Amino acid sequence: MAEARSPLAHRTADLAGLDAVEVAHLAQVDVRCAPDDAARLGFPLEPNTVTGDPVRGMLWLGPDEWLVVAAPDTEAALAAELEAALAGTHHSVVDVTSNRTVIEFGGAERWRLLAGGCPIDLDPAGGWCPGLCAQTLYGRAQVLLQEFEAATRMFVRPSFADYVVDRLLLPVGA
After folding, report:
1. Can you give the pTM of this predicted structure?
2. What pLDDT score was predicted for residue 2?
3. What single DSSP character describes residue 170?
4. Tell me, what's the pLDDT at 41?
5. d(CA 27, CA 16)
6. For residue 68, what are the contacts with CB-CB under 8 A and spacing of at least 6?
7. Nearest-5° angle of CA 6, CA 75, CA 25?
8. By CB neighbour count within 10 A (0-12 exposed, 13-18 middle, 19+ buried), where does 65 fall?
9. Angle at CA 157, nearest 5°, toward 42 and 118?
10. If you average pLDDT over every residue of the chain, what do you get?
């Protein structure tokens, strides 16, 4: 069997220059279920919020949709666990690991870097803080942002990953 290759494996140096790394093959499982069932599993019910931690998190995507992320290469076990937890309920559990790659930004300048191509206010003084997530655009690419205490994750479709890195490398204001 061929080994999976991450969409940004060839951009490691570019990402390092941005104080960023690709979190390759992060397990990602999309869950659709009733809010009551989601609450029972510890999923957030407030829009654009996250529960969990950097190792395993549940991101609110919509009134009945969440993205569960976990350690790389654990998607099969994660999906099976979620299926078992939701057995007997109306639900959908889909492995979407290959649907997005993840870029994780560190450093104090990450919000300014991302603000150059993102229409939402990412300034912590404006309310963007750990525990939040948002579906938005970066340039013209659809992305999902997740904020941590010392990092910001950007989930982006593999077909747009190079475009996003190229856009990030543009001088601010370009």
Report:
1. 0.94
2. 60
3. S
4. 97
5. 22
6. 28, 29, 30, 31, 43, 56, 57, 58, 59, 78, 82
7. 15
8. middle
9. 85
10. 94
| pLDDT at residue 54, as a whole number | 82
Q: Which CATH number does the domain housing residue 121 bear?
A: 3.30.1360.120
Residue 111 lies in a domain: yes
**Per-residue pLDDT, 55:** 87
Q: How many residues does the chain have?
A: 174
DSSP state of 163: H
118 lies in a domain? yes
Parallel/antiparallel/unpaired status of strands 152-156 and 101-105: antiparallel
- For residue 2, being part of any structural domain is answered with no
Measure the N-to-C terminal CA separation of the chain; round to a whole number of Å.
43
How does strand 91-95 pair with strand 101-105? unpaired
Is 174 inside any structural domain?
no
- Cβ neighbours around 162 below 10 Å, total: 15
Region 36-41 average pLDDT: 97
Domain that holds residue 98: 9-169
| Residue 173 banded pLDDT, cuts 50, 70, 90 | low
